[in-house]
Amino acid sequence: MHLADLRKLSIKQNTRIHFALAGGLECVVTEHGIAHVPGLRGVPKFNLESELAAVREFRFEPAGEPDRKHPAPIRSLTRDEVARLLGPASATASAAQHEDE
Q1: C-alpha of 83 from chain center
Q2: Across residues 64-72, what is the average pLDDT?
Q3: Where are the domains of the chain?
Q4: What does the alpha-carbon distance between residue 8 and residue 31 come to, in Å, rounded to a whole number?
Q5: Helix (H, G, I), strand (E, B) or coil at 17
Q6: Chain-centre distance of CA 7, in angstroms?
Q7: How would residue 4 be classed by pLDDT, with cut points 50, 70 and 90?
Q8: Which of helix, strand or coil describes residue 78?
Q9: What's the pTM value of the predicted model, to 2 decimals?
């Protein structure tokens, strides 16, 4: 799974994807496919692609106007569940990565 895959998925599903980074920060991939780290105040000392390789849990938050009567739930998904959403090529890559660990 690569950051580009998450960016495409966030656009396709019109959702924001959150995942934790080392050091207590969080990355948010917006519904526009833009990855940003709120609270980051300078040039990071990490690589998002490398950090993503260690992520095990993602939060999917619906984008757009919230429906106050029927709010859409925020879903927590494991790495394998996200890989299945991304499709067979990504799921195969994720399985191969787990074998390397």
Answers
A1: 10
A2: 71
A3: 3-100
A4: 9
A5: strand
A6: 8
A7: very high
A8: strand
A9: 0.78
Q: Kindly give, in sequence order, each residue whose CB lies less than 8 Å from that of residue 16, ignoring residues fewer than 6 positions away.
A: 10, 28, 29, 30, 31, 60, 61, 62, 63
Q: By C-alpha distance, which of 53, 70, 71 is closest to 62?
A: 71
Q: Which two tokens stand for residue 81?
A: 């569940």
Angle between helices 88-100 and 79-86 (to 10 degrees): 150
Q: DSSP readout, 18-66?
A: EEE-GGG-EEEE-TTS-EE-TT--S--SS-HHHHHHT--EEEEEE-SS-
Q: Which two tokens stand for residue 7?
A: 């960016």
Give tens-digit pLDDT for 23-67. 889 999 999 999 999 988 888 888 999 999 999 999 999 987 766
Cβ neighbors of 3 (< 8 A, separation 6 or more) are 29, 35, 48, 49, 52
Distances (CA, A) of 70 to 9, 63, 64, 73: 24, 14, 14, 9
Smallest CA-to-CA distance from 81 within 93, 91, 92 is with: 91
pLDDT at position 91 is 45
